[in-house]
Description:
By secondary structure, the chain is an alpha/beta fold. Helices cover 31% and strands 17% of the residues. It has two domains: 293 residues, FAD/NAD(P)-binding domain (3-Layer(bba) Sandwich); 222 residues, FAD/NAD(P)-binding domain, CATH 3.50.50.60. It is built from 15 helices and 20 strands. Strands 1, 2, 3, 4, 5, 6, 17 and 18 form an eight-stranded mixed sheet that branches. Helix 13 packs parallel to helix 15. The longest helix is centred in the C-terminal third of the chain and has 21 residues. The structure holds 3-acetylpyridine adenine dinucleotide.
Amino acid sequence: MPEMKSIRKLDAVVVGAGFGGMYMAYKLREMGLDFVGFEAADDVGGVWYWNRYPGARCDLMSVDYSYGFSREIEQEWTWSEQFAAQPEILAYAKFVADRLNLRPLFQFETRVVSAKWDDDRSLWIVATDKGDVFEATYCIMATGPLSVPKEPEFGPLSNFKGELYRTASWPKENVSFEGKRVGLIGTGSTGIQVVPEVAKEAKELYVFQRTPSFTMPMRNTKFDDEFTSELKRHYPQIRSVAYNSPLGGVRPQSTRPYFSIPLEQRQSLMEDAWKQGGLAFLGTFSDLLINEEANEEVAEFVRGKIRQVVKDPETAEKLIPRGYPIFARRPCLDTHYYEAFNQPNVHLIDCIGNEIERLSDNAVHTQNETVELDALIIATGFDGMTGALLNFEVTGKGGLPLADKWADGASSYLGMMMHGFPNMFLICGPNGPAVLANIISLNEQNVDWICALIDHISETGQHCFEVTQEAEDQWMDEVRSLAELTLVSKAKTWYTGANIQGKPRGLTVYTGGFKRYRDSCDEIAAKGYEPLVLN
Ligand code: N01
């Protein structure tokens, strides 16, 4: 343990300098609060700082996946394409940090190691790995839903003595796979983006796939000057549509149920959606996440496309997802993923019934085969939603560890607060719409709502809030009953904790959509924050 230094008293601490933490820091400074932000990385960007693997790209449109709070930033920043790649998104985060002078508000390369509520003095005691201790009225967790990578079951990874890369902490230096035998484990959104890029370079690429994902062509496009100036003229309208939509983004929505039109018309609309790319399917029919039969027909259509693209029928059958609804796992958007399997240097290793057992000096050993490699890429996903918050010591009233509160599953109010954890805010926490909505819109909405509550508390002469157990239970009932209406919980995913051994199962996402969620939050504020006890 580092030696403890002096204690600094603050109004607030903010943990994380991703898009949520950056906007929170900006707002707190505007409000004149005394606070410090902490960030483990040496710069801003959060998930986009760490995930700099080849092919990393956002599958939400760049104009959506950007801040709407500053008209100046909207006008000064120019996106180069419809779906921005990681370097451009990280450059955007840095641009915002420079433009708003946010970096002095953070201590970089600093991890928070504990956050403990002091019952007697009603404040948070926050300690860092630098040995600093802070006492703060508010503790604001902007730790992100996907910041702690999953440790795969076949570990330890250090058993492999060749070049080892994790997509979630990719090196800053250029990595060359030229002339190398490369293995890739994991075929979620991340692995699917890696495959076509590494396939261009590697001598051989072995893709270890357990559950095949449904992926659709992204069909990304570059923006020209004319389009960009039109876009910039229309930002207010774009934001308004986004904030009033279920996804918090400008994505086509449909009110047409799948079976409301004849088969031929359905087929023709699906062909159009496939040609259009992106998530056009979700804008073509309204009920794909609630009607199992409709969902299965669309899934079968996509399976047919995989058979058309992948030339080797045996490989195509292995790549075809079965046994769970399409869109129940996060729908992936790819650029020539299936096409990559037509290259002679790309090999699919099916891990169904052939689990990866262990790594050795220079190989991956599955139950049935040994694959010798020079380099190995791990893209096995994240301990989503709760991982970051359980990664250090967080204790609430009466010394209650967060891990105990969440022993049977993460519970919260609006994904922003928890009974037993007064004056703590979560930005995009579990049981809010994060991961099913545009997280930048949600970050902004959460931060604005939290800051309005902080203002309200100080205006009413109070300094402490806590959500009641009753209100939290009611919110969790709503989260659960909405989840039962959708097919989202019918797949084994990180959404439900099913990717981590021993993690409590259950969908920790509010599935009512961004607009309905925002309305609920606004209503609570309009009624004077009744479910919160202020003192
Ligand atoms: O992680 P995942 P991800 N043996 O959990 C496999 C966001 N994101 O990093 O399903 C063999 O989806 C696992 O197989 P299985 C996005 O929200 C966004 O790809 O457990 N395989 C699966 O194939 C996304 O949902 C963008 O059978 C093993 C893979 O690893 C989230 O990040 C881009 C294994 C993990 O897939 C996570 O995506 C990228 C084992 N022992 C990511 N253990 C955008 O574009 C795990 N796997 C915005």
